[in-house]
Amino acid sequence: MRLKTSLLKEPKHKELVSCVGWTSADELYSCGDDHQILKWNLLNGETSLVVKLPDDTYPIDLHWFPKNVGSKKQGQSDMFVITSSDGKFHLISKLGRVEKSVDAHSGAVLAGRWNYDGTALVTAGEDGHIKIWSKSGMLRSTLAQNGLPVYSVAWGPDSEKVLYPVGKQLIIKPLQPSSKVLQWKAHEGVILKVDWNPVNDLILSAGEDCKYKVWDSYGRALYSSTSHEYPITSVSWAPDGDLFAVGSFHTLRLCDKTGWSYALEKPNTGSIFSLTWSIDGTQVAGACGNGHVIFAHVIEQHWEWKNFEVTLTKRRAMQVRNVINDAVDLLEFRDRVIKASLKYGHLVVSTSLQCYVFSTKNWNTPLIFDLKEGTVSLILQCERHFLLVDGGSLFLYSYEGRLISSPKVPGMRTDILNAQTVSLSNDTIAMKDKTDEKLIYLFDALSGKPLGDGKPLAHKIEVVEIALDQGGPAIERKIAFVDKNRDLYISTVRRLGKEQKAVKIGSMVHTLAWSDLSNILCGIQDNRFTVWYYPNVAYVDKELLPKTISEKDGSEYTKSPQIVSFVGNRVTIRRSDGSLVHTNISPYPAIIHDYITASKWDEAVRLCRFVKVSYYFVLLHVY
User: Fold this and answer.
1) Could you tell me the residue ranges of all domains in the chain?
2) Under CATH, to which class is 2-299 assigned?
3) Which of 12, 104, 168, 375 has the most other CB atoms within 10 Å of its CB?
4) Are 360 and 381 a contacting pair, CB within 8 Å?
């Protein structure tokens, strides 16, 4: 994966550009020290002047009112806030009319951010104050007063907390006055920029010590970069939380959410003071110190499944390679590609307007249908169908393009759903709610209605990751989940008679995945790679569970590895340095599962006697 950057020959701004913000995937606003707000149209390449601010107004930060909150009714969706050096913030319409100017701080207003539902605005000032405002610009409260300037600010995923830096410290302060404040030393120099992603709940910080760092929401360090040549002046998360961009003097870097770098560009930009991602997450724009606005598209994304490799070569083109016979197919699309997924013999690609479904048996004739909103943020696949998170809704489609169901949870924010919080099998959809993280909602895939009595699966503490098994009949469907303590539990999805409790089958589990063919679960706990060949034995006889587990040393996977896929008997793991490691598990348990499902008991017994390993006999016994 890399960035394809573009810069005009001559800058459109006469002075440095301080901030940029996207209105749509093809339109950007920029403003700088020349007091001009310019509109960039990426479709026709035109740039036009929106408004010229007064000569004593130097803009510092810009943020658009969120578009995913039904704001058309409120009439505010086409409005943005600009903070400036004269201690004011300005609410400006898309047409350039200044709706309101508010005296906010003594000294410059260094940052301003709308919360995710558009009900509040937070500003940070040179005077060290953090203030909360209503959407119309009325002061609600002064959240904090510090002795040092606050250069950046970010909302927590639930809009109930605010993250801001003071000197070398990072502070998370809840809006509730009596709640506990979290504070820790994060850098060796002044912190210049922070960002907090609502999907993965991770924090970015960048400072004058020339480093960028990744933190979790408890203040634990997950990644620290090497020291760069110049201070890091900007960081920004992609909307889906899988990537982030880092800006410095003549430097633009694309990174994975775990911190390691995909690509490094050295454009002639001066310092990049602000970075912002387009709504669809396909490109990033930067405000440059030499008057330029830099645009960078993410290309060469890569997907693998069995013997197929798919690479995004251009914004509207993909290359498919069959590694067995080296056959190459080129796929071209009418619009730019936003998301893609390759599993279960199908490639699902969403563009800004349509969804394409390719079969790996025939790349020439895809099935094409129009999308409801064209802002797909997540694609999940199972054997029979696939799930799209499009705008504010979830849609389940068959591979023939037929809409099967659209499950709904009142009040759920679909924009923060990801592969860890949603899981799909042939008959069930599971979702973890952000408002109450102890609950897992379960839906029948074909009808979209809640399972059983409609009550969600409740756990005693917050759930971090969920995964549905893929094999067997619907009545035996199981869900595995990891809670905040990193304990692994398994529970039945459909309850018959007496309610079954979740059973703990592992501890200190960092990542997990079900096999795509049979109900075999693998995970990494502590420094061991563990395979649960038959997790369901926990419901038969818990004392037999250890006999169905295989473990091997996993120290080679280093800190914080992630299981990328579990296809057949091959598990792919991404290490913390970004490299992919493949490991194979024994093929025999999957074969025994298949024999028993097909009631081929004689063959299963013969295989057990041939292999002569105790847990295969246990597998057979508990069946």
Assistant:
1) 2-299, 300-401, 407-581, 586-623
2) mainly beta
3) 104
4) no
